[in-house]
Write a structure and sequence with these properties.
The complex is a heterodimer of chains A (371) and B (254). Chain A has 371 residues and is of the alpha/beta class. Chain A is built from 15 helices and nine strands. Chain A is globular and about 60 Å long. Chain B has helices at 23-33, 53-56, 75-89, 109-121, 134-142, 164-173, 187-196, 205-208, 213-233, and strands at residues 2-4, 7-9, 13-16, 37-41, 64-68, 93-96, 125-130, 149-150, 179-180, 200-203. Classes of the chains: A alpha/beta (371), B alpha/beta (254).
């Protein structure tokens, strides 16, 4: 089977990067006025040359998002099931070499967490784990899905990459969306940040969206961890990946995230810093390039940033999040993946969204639609 | 007056419920539009909760709900969803939307035809969203559709009646009401559709995404009424040049 790897190998990181940095004001203007934008246009939109057009980009992004999505923001919340992990990832609190007590929630503990999340008003939950194949495996996920499906209208997952057959087992149980972030498309850098564990296999991760597409997943999420490598080049490869997937797996929906590296105890300092202006540029560039893709903003970002960026292209937000297993009820002090920046409650975020003239949407899927 | 199945409608403007900044704004815009048939995505309503916020704001005696199957990808899923909607919302009306392509939301003609046949046999009043395909419209008639809902241009695009020539054919040969569904971006598009002889139009994005949805709802109400009145009055033929003063057949009078 051909996969994104075949496309990916036709591009060189260095050449792509050079092209982005060589983009001119004229390239940006063409990208802004085109009726359909190409990958070359995307390169111009994430280039340093586009910084001078940030207000124009924001206006266009706002307008395109309003037309496609209207004045609504989808609400979701993460539910961390486990922080056990056999991978070493230099930037992650769950990294194997971080010698801290680990926890995987039992069915009873999961239901305690679910009760709190439901009280917050959520109908869309994102299940998160590390990669610990001896305890957190496909059988475990099967049990979890059976357990929680009656309580949620939309279930997403951000766990280790799996095989097609595993996804085919989980999708009929209510798995709607799978997020799998490449972290970086820079192969050497990827190797450096993932020295041990199954995650060190760059190609297996790169081809995960192909396996999800083959399994018929309803929605998948892509992204890179911003801070590991040059964000402009990494975002270009994300856009390339998205374009390939949309054409090939045309029945699936797509979402993008743009997490900036957050501190955790003993963690890595970002190699590349992305400032707020640059993150706004990236969000607008994604939207101008692709009107249909969902853009998601987590509690990694600050209150002021989230309040203001809400109208610039974002379609979904989390709120009141905990990034540790048991964080909502069972064991609030367990090891967290990263520190969150926006600690407001789900209700406070919903009020903020309403004051901004948008409607927080808690339910936008129903399990009856995919019986 | 427009009649679909057993219902008579005073208003030929159908509306949607998505993309509004709040349920209150949605309610006020729909009231201003005078619409009597309002489509609701099943995925947005909580069918187990009788106090669901969207449904609560649509509780007016003149407003009929038209649940839609947005999100399903094939006939099997559509039939299942329609049955649940019938049970939960107590209506056998269903707007059949099968768009397996989430990017452009293009309707699947094959699955739509299959689902229409099955749902009509189950006693549903089926209003299928389709391409402006005249042959498909006739096939849908044959399997018992209550109306057809061809698109003017892609959903949410506000591009107007890009399929004009095909809509004309559909209207000319249809035995069921023709409702122009997607792409109507401005009141002038709606008026144009009505002048052509469409039985109704369905508008959502153009109202919901406008800076003032309530006033825009009113504007569409007026445009639909004007277009219909013009159609009923009979529009004059469009002449590209003045009528010749020396007609070609005048010799016959000699």
């Amino acid at each position: 089977m051909t996969s994104f790897k075949d496309v990916f190998e036709q591009y060189s990181w260095e050449q792509s990067k050079e092209k982005i940095y060589a983009a001119t004001a004229k390239d940006v203007e063409r990208a802004l006025t085109a009726s359909q934008r190409s990958l070359d246009d995307f390169m111009a939109l994430v280039s340093p040359a586009a910084a001078a057009y940030l207000e124009d980009m924001a206006k266009l992004s706002n307008q395109l998002t309003l037309q496609r999505y209207g004045k609504v923001i989808q609400m979701y919340v993460p539910l961390y099931l486990s922080n056990e992990c056999n991978n070493i990832c230099t930037y992650c609190g769950f990294s194997y070499d971080n010698k801290v007590k680990r926890k995987t929630l039992s069915p009873m503990e999961i239901m305690q967490e679910v009760a709190v999340i439901k009280d917050m008003g959520y109908n869309h939950v994102l299940l998160v784990t590390g990669e610990a194949n001896q305890t957190v495996h496909v059988d475990y996920f099967e049990k979890v899905l059976n357990l929680i499906k009656p309580h949620f209208s939309h279930i997403s997952m951000e766990v280790q990459p799996m095989d097609v057959a595993d996804y085919e087992r989980l999708i009929p149980l209510g798995l709607n969306t799978v997020l799998v972030y490449q972290e970086t498309y820079h192969q050497e850098d990827y190797r450096k940040h993932h020295p041990k564990g199954k995650k060190s296999n760059f190609d297996y991760r790169l081809e995960t969206p192909d396996r999800l597409g083959a399994a018929g997943i309803h929605k998948m999420g892509l992204g890179v961890l911003i801070g590991l490598e040059d964000w402009r080049t990494d975002s270009f490869f994300t856009a390339l990946h998205l374009s390939y997937l949309e054409k090939r797996y045309w029945q699936s929906k797509y979402s993008l995230s743009f997490p900036r590296l957050r501190p955790f105890s003993g963690g890595l300092e970002p190699k590349v810093n992305m400032n707020d202006r640059e993150l706004v540029q990236l969000i607008c560039a994604y939207r101008i390039f692709n009107q249909e893709v969902e853009l998601s903003l987590s509690t990694r970002e600050t209150i002021a940033f989230r309040n203001n960026v809400l109208k610039l292209g974002i379609t979904s937000m989390s709120a009141g999040s905990k990034t540790n297993p048991g964080g909502y009820a069972v064991e609030p002090e367990s090891l967290e993946q990263f520190e969150i920046s926006d600690e407001r409650s789900a209700k406070e975020i919903a009020d903020m969204i309403r004051i901004a003239g948008y409607e927080p949407v808690w339910k936008d899927w129903d399990s009856v639609l995919n019986p | 007056m427009l009649k679909i199945a057993d219902k008579i409608f005073q208003s030929r403007l159908f509306t949607g419920t998505g993309k509004f900044s709040s349920s209150v704004e949605m309610e006020n815009a729909i009231l201003a539009s005078g619409s009597e048939l309002v489509t609701v995505a099943l995925k947005r309503v909580d069918m187990n909760d009788t106090s669901d916020d969207i449904l609560y704001h649509l509780k007016h005696p003149h407003i009929h709900l038209l649940p839609n199957t947005s999100g399903v990808r094939n006939a099997r899923e559509a039939v299942f969803a329609a049955q649940l909607a019938r049970e939960a919302l107590e209506t056998n009306w269903i707007k059949l939307e099968i768009h397996p392509d989430p990017k452009y939301l293009m309707p699947d003609p094959i699955e739509t035809l299959k689902a229409t046949e099955q749902l009509a046999a189950l006693g549903f009043v089926v209003l299928p969203y389709i391409h402006a395909d005249p042959v498909l419209c006739k096939r849908l008639e044959e399997v018992g559709t209550a109306a057809v809902m061809p698109l003017g241009s892609p959903i949410g695009s506000n591009k107007g009646l890009k399929t004009f020539d095909f809509l004309e054919i559909i209207i000319a040969q249809s035995n069921v009401p023709v409702i122009i569904d997607a792409g109507i971006g401005a009141p002038s598009d709606a008026a144009k559709a009505m002048e052509m002889g469409a039985d109704a139009v369905l508008v959502n994005t153009a109202i919901a995404s406008s800076a003032n949805p309530i006033e825009m709802g009113k504007a569409f109400k007026m445009a639909v009424e004007a277009g219909r009145l013009a159609y009923e009055s009979g529009l004059g033929r469009i002449q590209s040049e003045a009528i010749s003063t020396s007609p070609l057949t005048s010799f016959l009078n000699d």
